[in-house]
Amino acid sequence: NLSNKLDRAFKTLKGQGSITEINVAATIKEVRRALVDADVNYKVAKTVTDKIKDEAMGRDVLISVSPGQLMVKIVYEELTELMGGEKQDINLKGDPAIILIAGLQGSGKTTFTGKLANHIKKQGRSVLVAACDVYRPAAINQLQVLAEQVGVEAYTELENKNPVQIALNAIEHAKKTNKKVVIIDTAGRLAVDEAMMKEIAEIKAAVKPTETLFVVDSMTGQDAVNTAKTFNERINFDGVVLTKLDGDSRGGAALSIRAVVEKPIKFISTGEKMEALDLFYPDRMAQRILGMGDVISLVERAQQAFDEDEAKRINKKIRKNQFNFDDFLTQLEQIKKMGDIKDLVGMIPGVGKALKDVEIDDNAFKPIEAIIKSMTPAERENPDMINGSRRARIAKGSGTDITQVNNLMKQFNDMRKMMKSMNKMAGTRGGLGNLA
Ligand code: GDP
Ligand code: MG
After folding, report:
1. What is the pLDDT of residue 401?
2. Which residues sit with their C-beta closer than 6 Å to ligand 1?
């Protein structure tokens, strides 16, 4: 699936110093292929990946996260942006507000009508649902059952075969019975045809809906995009409802429909239960498409916790082999800001590697902090001057024992040795990105 493919693409980035150093083109190609495989329209996939490429190349690599992780974040941001950025609500102005439901047969219109009625009713507005699928008697009954289930009135006319008339009558009835919202469920065909398009266009022209929603089955892949396009050209809908996202569905449809018809996705439907209706959040969908929510929040938290200037300053010192106990202390502060997020510790330049496997809580740091704070400023800056008698004094001053001080000294010196050898290895390329 998509997330596996992207995962593989990003794995090739692992262990690279910075995004500019890696072969972005190969990664981008992999991302594009993965999107297309997930039924994202080819043109859309190309637009996305071109943007991602520009963005990645221009981004100053934050030394605290790996390029692979940063790439995930960039892809995620691009996808979110493409799906509209913010969530979009439906318009319920009007007395009554009229919501017209359109889409192919089996896409989930009637089910969605029930769910939306439930959703709106819970907001404290009275709702009437209208059964305008005149071709299948079972469809009318289906809506009646759902309406009863969620506790709203259903308007039906068993003998009337004119959906436009039924819709208008339903609106009259809503006014008389003081309903604030009317949801009009319509008939669909299995495939796009002129009769269906003509009918839905006529209903729309007659009822002048506040909001027209196009319902589409997310499992239908590329067809979903074509159907959306045809419906939009004919009835110029206001928003999209993406159904059956509970199945083995490709979230890719969300991306390409949004890009091709330029209309917001407003709801997603995730099951047959009346409660299984969600507002559409572009960022959540992007995470779903990527299947990498954890990585994204990881990078976000790292970015929040990190003072970027501070990270740059420390890295400069590491490069010059000047990392000292003051820097160590500063880095400890950063780690503490991250709380118990153990995964993040490894991202901290310098200290991270040494402390990666240490149980992280404030108490664990207390002796270390006490020891460093018992050093004189000169000692912190020049750790080499800390001889045996100084260690004894520091232990006493910090309320620790000499073993603890020795351990810290050893840890610190090992760390500096490692930094030195990394610097040698990196040579003139200065690739310190994965030092921590
Ligand atoms: P309509 O022909 O557009 O009115 O579609 P229906 O509402 O009758 O739905 C067609 C079928 O899909 C029914 O069996 C529904 O129970 C099912 N269905 C609708 N929405 C969802 C959904 O979000 N998830 C799942 N798994 N099934 C759904
Ligand atoms: Mg139906």
Report:
1. 94
2. 103, 105-111, 188, 243-244, 246-247, 269-272
